[in-house]
Specification:
Layout (H helix, E strand, L loop, with lengths): L1 E5 L11 H13 L3 E5 L13 E4 L2 E4 L1 H10 L10 H27 L5 H8 L5 H22 L6 H19 L12 H15 L5 H7 L2 H14 L4
Parallel strand pairs: 1-2
Antiparallel strand pairs: 1-3, 3-4
Helix pairs in contact: 1-2, 1-7, 3-5, 3-6, 3-7, 6-8, 7-8, 7-9
Bound molecules: glutathione.
Length: about 230
């Protein structure tokens, strides 16, 4: 039995973390026996991050490590895809995980109107008198990282314009079928939909949360993937 440790459900999403949601989707797709364990403290896990799986006492971190493990056990997340489709899939995954994901981070951590709600939801376990102090340092670190990455230097309007190009590219594929590569969910759906869900579910409205929540195609897609692969407990 595999134990998957992930951040708990939040804001109506399968998990507070897009990568945790992705790992849950992969487990469902792989069809292996597994059980979910929620944790809000990633510090003792590989690289200080979640998700991670524990199999026969061995811990494997990172949603990509989990994908590789499941594939080694026989899972095929891209059944029926051509090599050309697989190369497009790789690009979509990078776009979601290494670009759109940072917009989720910035929407939640950088915006003074959003941050207090995020802080109190993510760090509810820290007693209130200490919460501001501890999370202030974490927030500064995140902002420093985003400044170095570059997106942290853009205004919300500039970020919307950047992210919009990705959202349109995703929508174009969805005109062709219910999932990114046709009738069945593939690895790309397990990676892309959670990030879109993260953008949509930021609990205080931002330019990007409105952009995604007002988009009927993207909204139906997020819900369709979660209905097929998600769980909320
Ligand atoms: N590349 C990792 C990324 C995982 C990740 O960034 N997890 C975040 C939550 S979305 C985390 O655990 N952050 C805790 C921290 O950085 O302290 C994966 O694919 O699993």
């Amino acid at each position: 039995m595999i134990t998957l440790t992930v951040f708990p459900p939040m804001f109506g999403e399968t998990s507070a973390s897009s990568f945790s949601t992705k790992a849950i989707y992969l487990m469902t797709m792989a069809g292996v026996p597994w059980t979910r364990e929620n944790s809000s403290d990633p510090r003792k896990w590989p690289k200080g991050k979640l998700p991670a799986i524990t199999v026969d006492g061995k811990v494997i971190g990172d949603s990509d490590g989990i994908r590789a493990y499941l594939e080694a056990q026989g899972a095929d997340f891209d059944k029926g895809l051509s090599d050309l489709e697989k190369s497009t899939s790789r690009g979509l995954i990078r776009m979601a995980e290494d670009h759109l994901y940072y917009h989720v981070m910035l929407d939640r951590w950088a915006d003074d109107a959003v941050w207090p709600t995020i802080r109190d939801a993510y760090f509810a376990d820290i007693p209130k008198p200490l919460r501001g102090l501890i999370t202030g340092g974490l927030r500064r670190n995140v902002m420093k990282g985003m400044h170095v990455q570059g997106l942290g230097r853009l205004s919300p309007e500039e970020r919307l314009a950047r992210a919009n190009q990705d959202l349109e590219a995703i929508t174009t594929r969805l005109w062709e079928g219910p999932f990114l590569f046709g009738e069945q969910p593939t690895l790309a759906d397990a990676c892309v939909a959670p990030v879109l869900g993260g953008l949509r579910s930021t609990p205080v409205a931002t330019l990007l949360s409105k952009r995604v929540s007002e988009d009927a195609v993207l909204g139906a897609y997020i819900d369709r993937v979660d209905e097929a692969l998600g769980q909320k407990s």
